[in-house]
Amino acid sequence: MKLNQSAQDELKKAAGKKAAALVEEGMLVGLGTGSTASCFIESLIERCRAGLKITAVSSSVRSLDIAKAGGIPVRSMDAVTSIDLTIDGADEVDSKFRLIKGGGGALLREKIIASTSKQMVIIVDESKLVDTLGQFGLPVEIIPFGYNATITKINRAGYMGTLRKKQDDSIYLTDNGNYIYDIHAPSRFSEPEKDHDTIINLPGVVETGLFFNLPLRVLVGRKDRTVDFIT
Ligand code: 5RP
């Protein structure tokens, strides 16, 4: 049974609410990016309005704007060396809890925040659980300087893709002023650590959307409307 858009939105809201319930008084909370993370931020705003005292750091300007508009006190990441709990979405999750992220273009800040967090909860619907990463493709953040040379190096390493563009056909810019090269699906990353190492070592590549070794729990929203942690 495939869920329609409004059922999917309800599931994201339910998952966001369950994730927001994990936030405790006094925590410094990492805010992810994307439609699912936005549902979490909205639920966190409700809890803050009901009296919860927390501070937050944001993985994107988009999430920062939502949090600030809702009255969540947001700190600059420049002054932070440890985050209590980060809650974010993902594009794919495998059985070893390795992730593909970056569909929303925030992978670099998301990875900095994730790797600074003592705990992380990823919220996804069950369609994002995969046996082998890669069906979504792989977003890679690259610097604009010499980007065609960088893309050629990525291609020569065996990964074909597309430079991310906006609807008006201009090049998509990340919050860091960089570009995103979307390695095409279906690339299959059966050893994603090796793929990450190959790509990240190419000059001009800033970060890949492959995330590993995080203190991660995964909260899954299912078609039957249940939202639970998987182990
Ligand atoms: C943004 C991300 C998002 O978490 C990912 O794309 C999932 O987004 P959504 O919850 O909208 O499906 O990595 O860079």
Compact description:
The protein is of the alpha/beta class and 231 residues long. 29% of the residues lie in helices and 24% in strands.
Description:
It contains six helices and 13 strands. Helices cover 29% and strands 24% of the residues. It has 231 residues and is α/β, with parallel strands linked by helices. The chain has a six-stranded mixed β-sheet with strand order 2-1-3-6-12-13, sandwiched between helices. The chain has a four-stranded antiparallel β-sheet with strand order 8-9-7-10, covered by helices on one side. A three-stranded antiparallel β-sheet has the order 4-5-11, with helices on one face. Helix 1 packs across helix 2. The mean pLDDT is 95. It folds into two domains: 136 residues, Rossmann fold (3-Layer(aba) Sandwich), CATH 3.40.50.1360; 72 residues, ACT domain (Alpha-Beta Plaits). Strand 4 and strand 5 form a beta hairpin. The structure holds ribulose-5-phosphate (5RP).
